User: What shape does this take?
Amino acid sequence: MFRRTRRLALISALAATAVILSACSGTPDQAPSSAPSSPDPDATLHVGLVLEPTNLDIRHTSGAALEQILIDNIYEGLVSRTQDNEVEGRLASDYEVSDDGLTYTFTLNDGIVFHDGTPLTSADVVSSYETVRTDKTVQGNAEFAAVTSITAPDATTVKIVLSEPNQNFLFALTGPAGLVFKTGDKTDLKTAENGTGPFTLTRWNTGSSITFARNDDYWGEAAGVAQVEFQYIPDFTAGVNAALAHDVDVLTAVDPNLASQLEDDFTLTKGRTTDKATLAFNNKKAPLDDVRVREALRLAIDHEGLIEAVGAGTTLYGPIPELDPGYEDLSDVISYDPEKAKSLLAEAGQEDLELTLTIPSFYGTTVPKVLISDFKKVGVTLDVNSVEFPTWLEDVYTNHDYDLSFVLHVEPRDFGNFANPDYYFGYDNAKVQDLYAKALEEVDPDKSAELLAQAARIVSEDHAADWLYNGETITAVSPIVSGFPEDSINSRINLADVTVSAEK
Amino acid sequence: MIRYALVRGALLIAGLLVSSVLIFLTLRVFPGDVAQLIAGTQASPAEVDALRESLGLNRPLLTQYTDWIGGIFRGDLGTSQLSGASVGAELLLKAQVTVPLGIMALLIAVIIAVPFGILAALLRNRRGGTALSVGAQAMAAVPVVWAGMMLIVVFSVWLGWLPPQGFPRTGWSTPGKAIESLLLPALTIGIVEGAMLMRFVRSATLQAAGQDFVRTAAAKGLTRTRALIQHGIPAVGLSIITVLGLQVAGIIVGSVVIEQLFTLPGIGRMLVADVGTRDLIKVQSELLVLTGFVLIVGFVVDLLHRAIDPRQREAA
Assistant: This one.
């Protein structure tokens, strides 16, 4: 109740954006010039994070807090993502997609073993993916809707057949849906693990920290540090204090307004994300079903000023962020024009408009305050209804009972929400739905991205929502640490290439 | 005496049962549930419902209640719907912070309240006594959060003596650090609770001063102050124990707030977090344990009171 968390990582259901040094991405070891000495293989890396996972069962529980630390470090899938958001092999040394986009053939790497010592075979992949396909309670079930068969022609080959092409399928496999678990494993995934990754779980001290140890029997190249300790510090000021006291070597999600305190002892990096700060309009509810009202609200918002108040982020004028396919600069669609906003409202007969903004309380008060003052200038009174997140899920997400809503949507490639009239946006446009379906079916990635861009432009021109900003995360990294990922680390932190040099 | 204890014990169990029903029903009024939270913002209603079914949230309320309360009778507080961890084990773990915090707060409250309360009574018609009473009145009215922030400003920010927040990761294996981190929070609760207790000590002392036996003692040649301390205070000491018992509840409420302010990994902070994630089985077991604790303290205090005070036994 006293949380001041402004960012939300909690929300990601699917995989997260891109990025990050994958173990096999071949990124050269670029030691920063300031690195004092050679890497210490026995070192422990201390990482300060904000949001603790509620449990470790990544198969059933949504949330960036799990994906952030578990994927690529503890668990691995057939494929993973590179820093450029490209799909690349992980457990699979090689994969092929047939020309019709229906058949995916993966070849497994040699010598992969689970942490309990059992070798991984194609049968484990089949059983893992069968579970995703058939069990509705498992994350990614919806993305497997078009899967008709998953087979293992031999011990190192997996074949997946779809009923229709799906441009997003391979990408979905880089998230929780694609992770491989041992057949018939009895491990309690909520508190323990039996993955294949370069780290094993040592201890979870609920309410404070999670510790990983290097997996010395890893099938690939061993990790650069002996141990990693994630410390969960929900309070931003406390996080900065912990960094200043050298309790942590890396602090993620630094509050932009506090970052300057760390400038002397740390390198500050600004990472890109797919976090879309979404001001949702209830498109099905009057007066927001009137496009003039929606446009007026967007014209009333001074996006640059808002980003300045938030302290980090870049402008985003459409539903697709730069890291996702289909991105296009849509700043020509909307500008800051309170006068035009007023006349549009007058035209719509809504000079004395009163609206309610429903916002989960952990986002704080900065964004609502800016919106209240921006809207006031065009004669719109904004009431702010700050609620607990579960209440938001019930009222806004499930029951669609709201006028305006603010949430940071962090999932990559979630444009489909605007092609789903039953999503809480309530945006229903047959043209967009058609373009999106075509984009998914399109086998050529470039053509698919082009179709998405067309659809995204329509969504923005219809003012289906406003995208207040595209989030950026600030990470403070101690000079003794090198190789720490920069982008999208609120959804994934691949630690395999991170090294810590001996203390000065 | 035994009959009294039995009747009182039966009342205690009845009280717990009623609380369990109230706790269970009140929590069901909250909007949102754990299935929605687990499923997140990309899940379809069908997926959420499948999850709800597998978590047993679709069962009739009565079944859910009897399952829970049946477990409690077998000594099983249930498991968290989110983490799968045993609620009993989690409570024991967090109690390592909250119980020492509560004991320290109670000690501080008594150390403040008893001497100052008696002093305020003795000086009642002088300026010092009035100042003490006004001070106590003011402190008792202060919200715990505000008192905590003021103490942080003075002792952590200005003087730098004590940590502003947190509990050592090493826990009680480093007792010095652990106590250091609990000192400020305990002082915060202790001062506010102590101020309330002090007012009671003062009025109890005044009441004792008016008793016949104190006047008789004074008539026999003791000074008024000595008569009060030797004969008056022991007579009212018992009622102070009763009030202390009541203050346990205040300290528990205080610790919920204070653990947030000082980010202490205790029961209070866990409770708030669990309400926020709608982990209802965990919340209801936690609340029942806290309620049970307060009720049992009241029960013990009542029995003690009766065992020690001969007047009460005769009255029965």
In short: Chain B touches chain A at residues 30-34, 36-48, 50-51, 54, 80, 82-85, 90, 93-94, 164-166, 169, 260-261, 263, 265, 269-270, 272-273, 276-279 (CB under 8 Å).
